[in-house]
């Protein structure tokens, strides 16, 4: 079983990496980009019987800084 965790900065939190990407895209001639938010994707290979609640607990304790980041868990 596989879980995908997507972690993004919460709205209102400054994203300097996203701003750098936006600026670089503009410098390369891609003028249609109005905003960029950069995050991370974590893929977990899970043992049988691992629950979504356990993955959520992993996110709360380690994978995401819940003060400034939100996360989404998808189990496949």
From TrEMBL:
Highest rank taxon of the organism: Bacteria
Catalytic activity, as annotated: N(2)-formyl-N(1)-(5-phospho-beta-D-ribosyl)glycinamide + L-glutamine + ATP + H2O = 2-formamido-N(1)-(5-O-phospho-beta-D-ribosyl)acetamidine + L-glutamate + ADP + phosphate + H(+)
Any one annotated GO CC term: cytoplasm
GO molecular function: ATP binding; phosphoribosylformylglycinamidine synthase activity
Pathway assigned to this chain's UniProt record: Purine metabolism; IMP biosynthesis via de novo pathway; 5-amino-1-(5-phospho-D-ribosyl)imidazole from N(2)-formyl-N(1)-(5-phospho-D-ribosyl)glycinamide: step 1/2
Keywords: ATP-binding, Cytoplasm, Ligase, Nucleotide-binding, Purine biosynthesis
Enzyme class: ligase
Entries under InterPro entries matching the protein: PurS, PurS-like_sf
Keyword Magnesium: no
Subcellular localization, as worded in the UniProt entry: Cytoplasm
Entry EC no(s): 6.3.5.3
Alphabetical list of Gene3D superfamilies matching this protein: Phosphoribosylformylglycinamidine synthase subunit PurS
GO annotation, biological process: 'de novo' IMP biosynthetic process
Self-association and partners: Part of the FGAM synthase complex composed of 1 PurL, 1 PurQ and 2 PurS subunits.
Family: Belongs to the PurS family.
Described function: Part of the phosphoribosylformylglycinamidine synthase complex involved in the purines biosynthetic pathway. Catalyzes the ATP-dependent conversion of formylglycinamide ribonucleotide (FGAR) and glutamine to yield formylglycinamidine ribonucleotide (FGAM) and glutamate. The FGAM synthase complex is composed of three subunits. PurQ produces an ammonia molecule by converting glutamine to glutamate. PurL transfers the ammonia molecule to FGAR to form FGAM in an ATP-dependent manner.
PANTHER family per UniProt: PHOSPHORIBOSYLFORMYLGLYCINAMIDINE SYNTHASE SUBUNIT PURS (PTHR34696)
Name of this chain's protein: Phosphoribosylformylglycinamidine synthase subunit PurS
Source species of the chain: Roseicyclus elongatus DSM 19469
């Amino acid at each position: 079983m596989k879980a995908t965790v997507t972690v993004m900065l919460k709205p209102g939190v400054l994203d300097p990496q996203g701003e750098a990407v936006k600026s670089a895209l503009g410098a390369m001639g891609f003028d249609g980009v109005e905003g960029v938010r950069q995050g991370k994707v974590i893929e977990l290979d899970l043992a049988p019987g691992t629950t979504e609640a356990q993955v959520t607990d992993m996110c709360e304790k380690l994978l995401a800084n819940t003060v400034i980041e939100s996360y989404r868990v998808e189990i496949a």
